[in-house]
Every structure is written in C-alpha cells, then in structure tokens.
Specification:
It contains 6 helices and 19 strands. The strands form 5 sheets. Strands 1, 2, 3, 4, 5, 6 and 19 form a 7-stranded mixed beta sheet that branches. Strands 8-15-9-10-11 form a 5-stranded parallel beta sheet. A 3-stranded antiparallel beta sheet has the order 12-13-14, with no helix packed on it. The model has no long low-confidence stretch (mean pLDDT about 95). It is of the alpha/beta class. The protein is elongated. The longest helix is centred in the C-terminal third of the chain and has 22 residues. It binds NADP nicotinamide-adenine-dinucleotide phosphate (NAP).
Length: about 300
C-alpha cells in the first residue's frame, strides 16, 4: 500500500498495452490492472486487416498476444483485479480493487468499451442461448444453421462475413436501407453468396423456451411485423453488432465526459492533472486498434513529462 508507482494503467487492450510498452521503455515504475483477458474488443475480433504491417489473416487474439509479450519485455508489473473505486485528485492517486489499494503519481484510463445491447425484448434472457456479441467465440455453434446479424457498421458486416464460414446463410438486419460500413467491406459482403440483407428493419422481440425459438422483426417504414422461426429441428443465431458503450462508470463526476466518453485533449490529458485517457473510452472520431495504440503511446509519454515536471 505504501509503494507509489509512477504510473498505473487501467485496462490492457491495445491502448493500455501500448501505454505499458512506452512507459516500460521510459523506465517508469508501472502497474497495469486488467480484470479479464488482455485485448478488450480485439480479443474477440477474428481478423485485423487494417493494422499497418499486420500479417494477412492475422487474428485479434494473435495480435494482442504479441502486444502483451512485447510489454512484458519492458518490465511493467501486471495485476488481474477488478477496480472498484478511483481517487484521482492530488499528487497521489488511489486505485481501489478487489485485490487491494494501489497508489500512483499518474493514471492512464484505458478501460475501453463493451458491446451495446440490441435493445429488444427478451434479448438478455437468451444471451448464450442463441444471442451473442462475439462471432469468434460463438459462430461455430451455428454450423449449417441460419444466423441473423443486427447492425450495419464495420463490425456487423465483417463479423457477418466471418460467420458465413460456418452458417448456411447470414442475414444482416439493418435499421436503414444503406450500410454504415466502409465501402471496401460492403463490396465483399455484397459479393458473398451466403449473405442476405433485411433493410429498414429492427428486432422487436426474441422468444423461445430454453434457446431462441423465434424472433419478431419490424419494418420501420411500413410498420409490418414478421415472426422469424427456425426450421424444424434447427436453431438460429442472433449476433448483435450495434456499436459500443464506453466503460467509464467509475469516472462519472470525476472526469469530464461527453455521452459517457471521457474527454481528453490531443495529448490525452483529461481535466484532472496527472490523469490521462487512451483508447475507446475516449471521445474521438476514429476508434480503431491503431488509434488506441497511438493514444496509449502519447498518454505514457505525457505521463513521463508530467512526472518530470512534478518532481522538478
Ligand atoms: P458503429 O460504426 O457505431 O455502427 C453501429 C451500427 O449499428 C450502425 O450501423 C448503426 O445504425 C447500428 N445501430 C446502432 N444502434 C442500433 C440499435 N439500437 N438498433 C439497431 N441498429 C443499431 O459500430 P461498429 O461497427 O462496432 O464500429 C465501431 C468502430 O470500430 C467504428 O469506428 C468502426 O469503423 C470501427 N471498426 C473498424 C473495423 C475495421 O476497420 N476493420 C472493424 C470493426 C470496427 P446506423 O448506421 O443507422 O447508425
């Protein structure tokens, strides 16, 4: 408890690991706290094709494994724990976890984001029983069955294409008549013979006994309701990719935020001196592995400068 780290990094996704790498190379006495596995969202992303220098077909888990190994080479301490409270004011910050309290001169918040629920009736009841938010984890359960993917962004379309490797048919259900996904991703999807599209449609309700039995969808232009049922002796899957919710509850009232995202300047400083923000929990226009990694590098460099300045 009495030890004061130079830096505590909250979260070990691409932002936190990149910060850990830069902090380690700068010889900052650093602790990285992560409650689960490393990687955040990319731990459940089947393919990363837009990280510069990446290997063709590289998976999220393999990229994150290399990032974690690289951080380990430079000596940042690691702790698996759940953070329960943060005290960010003053020169010594206190992080309370289920494994004890930790002190630091600086903090980098890199807590990332969680998948946003689809928001229909019955959804929560069928998570793991037909409803999923992770194609890498669950697509193989739907070998030769039908799958519905909700959303129209990059995640929905890329993950839907991955699911076509297993499913008989994958139908994207999108609330508008045009995808948000990058054009290059759309082009691949439109060419894929296993892909279908249900435009102007939202999911109203998911129903069933032990597992999903049916789903009611609504055409938002006509108001028409349709019940989709699995063919006899079959199941179907519903994957939600409708964006993310930042994991920032611990910082409400402590850091300035907008729409739940923490505000940081170009150099990742928050409104509290000595507290920096990096990655998908930060308000910014492009949330990608590369921007998370860049945020982490900048935040760690700024933390080092802050300590130098503090210690005169
Ligand atoms: P996103 O870009 O925010 O897209 C979310 C999609 O879900 C949108 O199409 C949105 O519809 C739809 N949606 C939102 N709320 C909904 C609701 N309640 N019901 C039904 N549909 C809803 O999220 P994302 O695709 O997860 O991507 C997040 C970020 O990661 C983006 O910046 C994206 O570019 C990036 N990303 C990049 C890659 C890549 O480059 N390879 C891969 C994955 C993600 P509207 O279009 O009507 O708003």
């Amino acid at each position: 408890m009495s030890k004061i780290y130079d830096l505590i990094i909250l979260g070990a996704g691409p932002a936190g690991l990149s910060a850990g790498l830069y902090a380690g190379r700068s010889r900052l006495d650093t602790l990285i706290i992560e409650k689960g596995q490393d990687g955040g969202q990319i731990a459940i992303t089947h393919e990363i094709e837009n990280y510069p220098g990446g290997v063709h077909g590289d998976s999220g888990p393999s990229l994150i494994k290399r990032m974690s190994e690289q951080v380990a080479q430079f000596g940042a301490e690691r702790l698996t724990a759940t953070i329960t409270n943060v005290e960010l004011e003053g020169n010594t910050k206190k992080i309370t976890t289920d494994k004890g309290e930790f002190l630091a001169k600086t903090i980098i918040v890199a807590t990332g984001a969680n998948p946003r629920p689809i928001g229909c009736k019955g959804e929560a009841e069928f998570v793991g029983k037909g409803v999923s938010y992770c194609a890498t984890c669950d697509a193989n359960f739907f070998e030769d069955f039908d799958v519905y993917v909700v959303g129209g962004g990059d995640s929905a379309v890329e993950e839907a294409m991955y699911i076509t490797k297993f499913a008989r048919k994958v139908t994207i259900i999108h609330r508008r008549d045009e995808l948000r996904a990058a054009k290059s991703i759309q082009e691949k999807a439109f060419k894929n013979p296993k892909m279908a599209f249900m435009w102007d449609t939202v999911v109203e309700e998911i129903k069933g006994d032990d597992i999903i039995g049916s789903m009611i969808v609504k055409n938002v232009k006509t108001g028409e309701l349709t019940e989709i049922t699995a063919p006899e002796d079959e199941i179907f899957g519903v994957f939600g990719f409708v964006g993310f919710l930042p994991k920032t509850d611990l910082f409400v009232g402590k850091l300035e935020m907008e729409d739940g995202y923490i505000l940081g300047c170009e150099d990742m400083h928050t409104n509290v001196p000595g507290v920096f923000v990096a990655g998908d929990c930060r308000q910014k226009s492009l949330k990608q592995v590369i921007t998370a990694a860049a945020d982490g590098a900048i935040a760690a460099t700024q933390a080092e400068k802050y300590i130098e300045h503090m210690e005169g």
